[in-house]
Every structure is written in C-alpha cells, then in structure tokens.
Amino acid sequence: AAMSRKGLKLLVDSLTRSAKHFNKSEVECLVKLFDTLVAKACSEYAGAGFDRTVFRDTLHSAFGMTDEVVLDRVFSIFDRDNDGCINVVEWVEGLAVLLRGTLEEKMKLCFTVYDLNGDGYISKEEMFQMLKNSLLIQPADEEPEEGVKDLVEIALKKMASTCLFIPFFLQDHDHDGKLSFTDFEKAVRDENLLLEAFGPCLPDIK
C-alpha cells in the first residue's frame, strides 16, 4: 500500500539515523527504489519486501556483481530475520554497509560472505570454493581444481611471508587451515587489499 507522506517522513527520519551513512534525500531515493523493486517481486510477500531473485538481479545490474555464491551470501547478510524477504529497513541499512561502510563494517561483511557454513572461521575448503568461482579458465592440459588449490596455498604462504597471518599460524594448533575473524581483521588492517582476498564481494568505487 502507498505510504502516507507523514509515514514516509517518519520512515526516512528513522532510517537516516539507523543507516548512518546516507543523508535524508539519499534514504528517500532508496525507499522509492525499494517500492519499485517490491512491485517486481512475488506477491507472497504482500508488498512487505522482495525476494532473492529481485535482489540478485538488482545487485547484478547496478554493481556488476555476478558471482552466484557471493550474491546468495550477501542476500543472507541483508536478510537479517531470515524470512527470505528483504524489507525496507534491511534494504537501506544493508546498502549503507555495502556502499559506504567503515573498514570495520566491510571486514565483517566480507568475512561473513567467505564463512560459507557460518561457523565463525574461513576454512581452506571455503577459500577453495570462493576462489574457484573467480579463477580464469585454465589451459586444457591443466586441472582447474589443482590451479585453485595452488592459489590457496600461494595466498596463505604470501600472507605468512609478509607477517600478515602470523596469528593464524600460531592459533591453528590442529593445522586444519581455518582463519578466525581476528586473524582476518589483523591481516586486512595491515594490508587493505586483503579485504576481498577470496573473491569480490563489494561493489567497486565506480
């Protein structure tokens, strides 16, 4: 249902406070865009929000994000109440982090994207899954999976040689190849380029 002018103003004021990184006019534009996207969504949500398909199509067309695994993970991060639907609050507050988040906020977002099983660690298997989606097609005589495994090992050795992941090696007593958020955070703070080390999950500056 169309929102009253007063209702829209209250919503915009509230979201401007909670989203932090957008001003009122930007929030108002995002709410209007939300209404447009809801019109494309399945009727099962009764105008309350839009589904995974609309979300993925929007991020693909607006930001060029194409990796299906990443898009699904970002959807899950936006969908905080896990109801399969992005509501207006989740939409604006999620975009605030995705587009204008602090380094801390973006580190948490990227780590959560890479932590595919949600156990609080990024395992070698999860690194493999993320990297294999962004690796270029290999020559016919080389196994693509072997190339990804090599890439994971090279990345970890490079991080260790630059002292970025020393905490990871100290804490990984059973050598199961898991990175905690603390390890990831220390590495990224030392070298910001490692924020998306295991695959692109943020829009570029443009």
Automatic annotation (TrEMBL):
CDD domains: EFh. SMART domains: EFh (SM00054). Keywords: Calcium, Metal-binding, Repeat. GO terms for molecular function: calcium ion binding. Residues 66-101, 102-137 form the EF-hand domain. PROSITE patterns: EF_HAND_1, EF_HAND_2. It holds the Pfam family EF-hand_7. This is EFCB1 protein. The lineage of its organism: Eukaryota, Metazoa, Chordata, Craniata, Vertebrata.
